[in-house]
Specification:
heterodimer; A: D-Maltodextrin-Binding Protein, domain 2; D-Maltodextrin-Binding Protein, domain 2; 2 domains; 16 helices; 9 strands; B: 294 residues; mainly alpha; MetI-like fold; two-stranded antiparallel sheet; 14 helices
Amino acid sequence: MKSKYLTLLSFFVVFTMVLMGCAPAATAAPTAVPAQPTAVPVQPTAAAAQPTAAAAQPTAVPQPTATTAPQPTATSAGPSVVNFVTDSDTNISDWMANVIAPAFHAAYPQYTLKVTIVRGIGNGDQDIADRADAALKANADPQVDVLEYDALSEQQLITDGLWETMDTTTVPNAKNVLKGIQTSPYSMPYRGSQVLLAYDSTKIQASDVPQTFADLITWIKAHPGQFVYCRPDKGGSGDNFVVRAIYEVTGKDPTLFKPGAADPALLAKYADAWTLLRSINSAIYDNGAYPAGNTQSLTLLANGSVSMATAWSDQALQALANGVLAPTIKLTQLTDVPFPGGDTMLSVPKNSRNLAGANALVNFMLSSDGQTSVVKDIGGFPAVDWSTLPQDLQTQYTSVIAKSVPDWPGGDYDTALVKGWYDNVATNIKQGS
Amino acid sequence: MTSTNVSTLQSSPAPKRKASPLLAYLLIAPPVIIMVGLIFWPAIQAVIETLVLTNAKTGALSFSLQNYIGFFRDPILRENLWFTLEITFGVVAVLFLVGFPLAIYLRFSKSWIAAIVQVLALFPLFVPGVILAFAIIRFLGTHGMLDTLLRMLGSTSFSTPYLHPSGIVIALTWDNIPFTVLVLTAGLRQVEDSVIESARDVGANELQVFFRIILPLVTRAVIIVFCLNVIGVFGSFTLPYLIGPAQPMMMGVSMQQTYNGYKDHIGALTQAVISFIFCASVGVVYVRTVSRPH
């Protein structure tokens, strides 16, 4: 019996080791769950790091590591290399390397794109930006031409004069960029993601779909258990729903919330938002059960537990494209003030060895071809005005086109939002008891 | 002749036993240094940080229990602590209810099915926590496998444990079964068959055999399992994080929330010290049980 047990046990061990060894993506994917699928800079991704560290998984290292250091630009004999560095998820790096690179080379034969992935290496893009800054001071090669990075992440680098100013003189296509999403002259948004309402069209008639936030609240109360949004710190789709509630009680004026220190008068208004959200708490799925992430909300929608949920546009569009969500799931946006979203930025260090190539790349990303690819290939939101895109794309996405996208500054406003939500909306304890 | 042989036998000295204790200390020095440097010293620093308040104006340091008073005054944090204790003792109770019969079966069964049962009981060791969480969500969620099966059998009253405390209990129990079963089986192996047989010979039934013969003999193993499971479940993070409700939270999730979500460094440290005090007291019981001679 003992040897039988031993052989069975060893077979099991070997079998599961092989399974685990063959599926690193499966264990890596859940680590990305609490954060957004693409690197939206506004959202805290530190929370995503915690569960993996605590779980102490056997395969702890996620997907591909960085390639070797980018080569210096070639001589005049061949096309010069433009070094692009990103720490976004694999869907973005695959898209850049396999779709954008050939298209870029076709549009600008004198340049070729080299994609370097730094996801999972230290602090990702932040380290690359710091290295470029050190190179600036030492007069060395920063080894990057275009970085997927928001210059506002670190004030020190702006003070050091690391970044090139990006406007219509350096990047002509910047004239088409949506108003208000370029938050600093040193970074150019090139793809975005909005939070949308995803609903099951077999359960909800098109005429019953709520158009405004007030309509949405009425709908939720009329259909208890059919709507869900995730916890605000665990997923941006839930966070931006709560932000939209805050906009609702502060006069629907997103421009009131500016980056920097939080205005105490505005923070005091949060209490009204908690009252509003508390009023729908028992009408949320399973009597107020809030899932812990974007993916979980979509899962509940996909398996029919709810008929409407908030979702990131790119995540929803990709899920629709690969069949995770049935084609009967439709997307819509509020018509008064839309749910906020996030944009991913490109920054160019001034000491880049191929400044012309870098600007050409950013220009290409903002062109009609580049932005169409953003919508079609990765389900992203364009950073340019929809009217500059092909007509058929505009028709296809007509229900989600927003004229302007509110930009939530995050920071102190977000910290107060998270604490306030947990303490006042999610809990069953009366405050002050 | 024989006497000399005997005397040489008797007088051949044992090898030099004067190995200096210095060698022993040198051998254990590296792990002790690592433990002190990476665990004890930061822990002591953290405790001091929560007990010493700096006056913002004068910069003067003062000893104060304010952080802890604040913790126990906050109804939400109190509920988190109480919730954690409830879940911990609930999970450990279920673990004994499930693990003990399994261990007894594995100890006394001679059939080949027992080998399969043992492998199955050890299977959760090989499943990472995050994978388990998603598997449970798929299996026990609304419209999940269990729900579908029950509907096929005609029952529609299934209420999912996902995002409820019962979900945490199920997940943590499943995760800790291998350890419980292993240690209990090892403890039971020290109960010899002859003891059981003699008890049966004098007419004891199953329950009497269990409570009056087996249980007193495996007390040590039971206490070990109890202590280590309590400590493990109390501080667990991944499964409560993914499966549990938004409120109340277990201490591990609450600490992460306080540190990352609310950016409250001292608050998280306070919760950590309180958790540590609880787990350390249980740890004392464990150490005393383990170091007591049989």
